Amino acid sequence: MAEPEFSASSFSSGFGPEALLACYARGVFPMAEARDDPRVFIVEPDQRGVIPLDAFHIPSRLRRTVRTEPFDIRVNTAFEAVLDGCAASQGPDRQDTWINGPIRRLYGELFARGFVHSVECWREERLVGGLYGVSLGGAFFGESMFSRERDASKVALVHLVARLNAGGWTLLDAQFLTDHLSQFGAVETPQAAYLRRLKPALTVQPDQGALTRSMSGSEAVHRAAPTA
């Protein structure tokens, strides 16, 4: 798969959480070159990955897995640990990540203010997978995910989509389209078209309580993909 094309500009250490939210509101987001690189860049892709909330696809085997509830699903109970999991190397295809010091600081501040959320998969009181992202209006901006056990990040994604649908969110941004996300129905859309979808999504006032509400595996499958 070709490398995504985007334009990028760096920002200074004085960049704060309000400025970061303003970036999401205008359709751009931060990344770093590597964990040990102190620089952070504002990225505007030419093509944007989007997971349609009304056309989310759950592969049949994963659907069965979610229904059997192999993990204890929690939300917002271990954000720092989820960030650590996303920042860690995960095999030969992921030796390093873009989560550096400034990224950790910014998202930690947004989590404290209620704009960042983590969906976590636990087994026997051990965090085995999860994801995190930014919620602004009716848009959720997925940032990163990780797994320490088979399907953990996928189960977390199903539960995220189920809660977004239950709460009335209208847009799930995945930044870039990947083969991994394509199996869930993710599509690539030009940045201009993405911005046209983003503007009305930001005016939506979803039910924030839907994110943390308890939900069975069967309900998660139904709410994430009701026509499946």
Question: How is the topology of this model organized?
Answer:
Layout: E1 6-10, H1 17-25, E2 29-31, E3 41-45, E4 47-50, H2 60-68, E5 72-75, H3 79-87, H4 101-112, E6 116-123, E7 126-136, E8 139-147, H5 152-167, E9 171-175, H6 179-182, E10 187-190, H7 191-201, H8 209-212, H9 217-224
Parallel strand pairs: 8-9
Antiparallel strand pairs: 1-3, 2-3, 4-9, 4-10, 5-6, 6-7, 7-8
Provide the low-confidence segments as ranges.
1-8, 91-95
- Strand proportion, as a percent range, falls in 25-35%
**Pairing-aware structural class of the strands and helices?**
alpha+beta
CATH topology: Aminopeptidase
Number of domains: 1
As a whole number of angstroms, the C-alpha radius of gyration is 17 Å
- CATH top level is Alpha Beta
Total strands: the figure is: 10
Q: Count of DSSP helices?
A: 9
What does this structure look like?
With about 230 residues, the chain is α+β, with helices and mostly antiparallel strands. The protein has one domain: Aminopeptidase. Helix content is about 35%, strand content about 25%. The chain has helices at about 15-25, 60-70, 80-85, 100-110, 150-165, 180, 190-200, 210, 215-225; strands spanning about 5-10, 30, 40-45, 45-50, 70-75, 115-125, 125-135, 140-145, 170-175, 185-190. A seven-stranded mixed beta sheet has the order 5-6-7-8-9-4-10, with helices on both faces. α2 (about 60-70) packs antiparallel against α9. The longest helix has 16 residues, at about 150-165. The radius of gyration is 17 Å and the shape is globular.
